[in-house]
Design brief:
With 772 residues, the protein is mostly beta strands. It is built from five helices and 43 strands. The chain starts with a strand and ends with a strand. Residues 1-111 have low confidence and may be disordered.
Amino acid sequence: MRFEFRWGVVGLLVAVSCLVPSGAAAQGGPAAVLLPLCTSGGGPPPGHSAGVGTTRGRGFVRDVVTPRRQAVLVDDADGLRRGDDFTADSTGGFGDAEPVGCDTPLCESPELLESLEPKPDRTLTASWVADGLDGFPRDPQVAAGPTHLLVTTSGDGIAIYEKNGRLATEDRFGQKIEENPISAEDFFGWMSDLINPTLNLGLFRDVYERGELAYGIDEYYDLRAVFDTYRDRFWIVALARNSKAREGTLLEQQYRRSKLIVAVSTSEDPRDPWRFYWFDAVPGDGDCLDACGCEGTDYIPGAAADYPSLGVNQDAVLITNVAADNNKLGLDCLPFDNKRRHMVVTRLDAAAFADGSNGADDVVVYTRFDDVGGELASSTIQPALHHTATPLHGRQRPFYALSTFGGDRVVVWAFYAGPPRIERVAVRVEPYFSHLDDPDRWLVPQKVGRGLASSRRVNMGKNVGNSVLEAVYRDGWLHGGWTDCRKWGGGTACMPSVRLLRLDVGDFPAQPPTGAGSGVIDRTFGGRNVFDDPEGAVHAYGWPTVEVNGEGDVVVSYVRVGETLYPEGRYTIHRAAAADVASSSLLAAGEYTQGGEAQRLLGPVGKLDLTGAAVDPVDDRGVWIAQPHAVFSDPAVPRGSYELVVGRVFGRGRPDLVVQHFVRAPSGGGETGAEVAEAEVTVTVRNQGDAEAPATLLRLVRSDDSDHDLFDPELDLVAVPPLAPGAEVEVEAAFEMPTGLQPAKLYVLTLLDDTHQAEEYSESNNLRAHGW
């Protein structure tokens, strides 16, 4: 058994991506879309609401660091610093645990079903269809900022929504957003020209097709997104690969390359510029071209990455992904057959990467470390989203993560930096069905729609099994969720079900308590809702995601499907003080058969890896969820497809007033030599929130800079009528402006609702400066 970590720069890029307005051209490349203009410092220049920055491709490069080999540290012979890196299970050794199958009595839960507790009333406070994400919304994620939601799907789209469900069409300066949603390839693709020269493609380095490097990076996929409340930033993580090598011959597959892509917004508004970084998703990616490996590196040609996960705490961003060494050629020189999986964990200093001051010391990569069974850690390790700060352990703060192990345990991980080390504790839980026992148990039937003779089975998690799909830390509690499998109501086969876990890690690395009075939640639910479903119905529950609000209420959202049920979005609540989960509530009903009629050679449909949830940072109470449901999509060949629905559980709507446009009327000339001139402007006020805004006032003042102070003279005070969510109104103002002031030092400031009549999502966007 050994433990190894790497640190340093794996090859990174820092860039800011900027929008080119409609009708403008970018210098050196195509117009950059979705993301806003890079503005000049010191506020907007005179005569404009935003400055214009030069671009290169889809952004301008601030800093590029040439990829270099990382330093490597290998520990002593057994690979552990005893008492420093590893905390054993208090029950003793682990051994090779046998997967827990569904032939055990523990797998049968005929009496519990979902819950006998009634479902709560009126907990769904908002819901809308995620317009624009019209393809197959794989792996939906939602990240909630103060004023906007960022919704992503795996490779299909990145979309920015107002909280009323409207796609953002303009940035904060009123510039048109050309493409929203934007595909992952359009958002990240400009980086390929910077990554490709580093790939070390050997025989294929000079092979081009249609003017493009044939074996270059061309696919960006498996997107994950989160909002970081510590730094008020959005983070998006993706993987990138060269598809021609991935899909090619066994020889070509040896030249597969995998990169980890990270994007972070420069403010709490996702319409503002973003910074981009890239790393090797497989440590040493491309270091070696010998299929048997090379001295001085653990990299095996053809190794590939999959399934990234993302978490944030007060100090860092933690990203995990699976790496798979490749021996599909069956070479005797390699000590494994086909594939060998291991986990890669990348820790970024969040503050340094958020503001662009990052250096080599701000990255730590942990790789080829052991799990609690003494083998290479290969099961998905899910980093937690930390809503509250973790206490110091010595001089370091742990970054918690969670994984399953062996069918009857979970592993609590803690990653540290400075110096890098790992602590881990195995905790025995109620046995859960291991997906390794019978992978086809995740393939379940669905209701046959009108006009169909049969239906295709729905893949409810065969690809991820019982990996932890979400982990959340709050106030000493670590929560997690994954897909279990249970026999319900005396059935002969288990059905995918939801597993919810909560552990007290307040005394970590001590063993988390699990006995009576410990506060632990260890609950599998599924089968049917005893209040909504007919007796005898048994449904599958899959792809659960977990969130926890500031009151300690847990929200679990997931998809249900069964022989009498089209795929639907649903959620379950466990209130902080409750003894059990409540019965589930509907987010969006299924309307037709996903994928249509079963046909020969057509496999299961509907495969997802995970779904999304996020606490609203404004009240720390509302929980936004993103789940698909099946709708009728193609009358020519009757079939259904997934439509993504976004909803909010708990919380409430708020207005959010902004000045969207400021238009100055043409000057009428005026008296020559006059000290003042008459001026008129039209101001467009918009409510981008999801509740009605009351009648308010718009104050206009004159200033010699873009900041407001008490010495700025008032120009006009204009009434703004009540505005419904998503509504806007034009108001007119007239005032006198001095003629002798220098234009470079003359601004009109618009102040919305400075008497605070409306309780808004944000007060920070009520002031705008307009160069005169």
